[in-house]
Amino acid sequence: MGHATDAYCDEEKELCGSYDVNAYPAVRLFKKNGGKDVEVTRYRGRRTKRAIRSFVTKHEIPTVTHIEPENVGAFKATDDIVIMAYLRPDQEALLEVFRTVASKHHADYVFGYVTDMPTADAEGLAMPSIVCYKNTDGDNKVMNGHFSEADVGKFLETATRTVIGEFNERNMDVYMAADKLAAYIFAATDNEANALRWELTPVAKKFDKYVTFGVADAVEYAPMAESFGLSERKFPALAVHAPMNDNVFIYRQGKRIMASVVEAMLTTILQAKAGSGQVFGSDAPEMEGEVTQDMRKGHDEL
């Protein structure tokens, strides 16, 4: 989840200039576009193995994939967010609407469709339906019934949002809102982050009006974690900050971060029954393993 220090193109200036590279690490995707033409796409996402794999996946598969019943399970796990339409074979007009929307958002999400009724029945879905499968937190969303292009666009806008966001310098003001608590999940790897998203998304949804949840890169934002009183040798970790009075509450490091314990922690804080610096989760089970500073060397995966 970390970022390497950028270096400028002092060498190979001509090559860098050819592909609009001003600093590196940098990623460009080269794709044959019929004949000898090569399409070059600039990657602007996070420099992690998972994010780059997702970027490549979206460019190597069709805009919309027709999925056979035996491949549905694998396709749903293709990317972090997968959009699937369940349509009867005679619903060609709806398929064209789905294709139109997919062509506009193919760089953002993976799209597929199923025309097998038993498959839809097994998922508990009517035909037509569209499902947004969210593999980072399991908070899947469903839209039932006939749809227009505008309907699908609005569905994507709302269904793809994650209740536990990604904390970074660009959205820092969201977590500093004076009328809400900010719950920071410090994770050193994507696997840690996603495991805790699955665990804590129900809690984040329940407290959405009062608490803003976010995952912070434990390597990049180590000084921030330290300012909250967290040890950089014990991740994942969780801290709650109250911007209105600068109070901080932490979850006992080395203990498993559990939804039930976090819910009790937030309830106590919101009821003004906790003091700044109070530590919660002491009775939670021990974490099965911990990430140390040495284990995280070379954390940036580029």
From TrEMBL:
Enzyme Commission (EC) number: 5.3.4.1
Keywords associated with the record: Endoplasmic reticulum, Isomerase, Redox-active center
Molecular function GO labels: protein disulfide isomerase activity
InterPro entries reported for this sequence: Thioredoxin-like_sf
Residue segments, region Disordered: 281-302
Enzyme kind, highest EC tier: isomerase
Chief location category: endoplasmic reticulum
Subcellular location: Endoplasmic reticulum lumen
Biological process according to GO: protein folding; response to endoplasmic reticulum stress
Keyword presence, Endoplasmic reticulum: yes
Catalytic reactions of this protein: Catalyzes the rearrangement of -S-S- bonds in proteins
Composition skew (Basic and acidic residues), residue ranges: 293-302
Domain of life per record: Eukaryota
GO cellular component: endoplasmic reticulum lumen
PANTHER family cross-referenced by the UniProt entry: PROTEIN DISULFIDE ISOMERASE, PROTEIN DISULFIDE-ISOMERASE A3
Family to which this protein belongs: Belongs to the protein disulfide isomerase family.
Name of the protein in question: protein disulfide-isomerase
Annotated organism of origin: Trematosphaeria pertusa
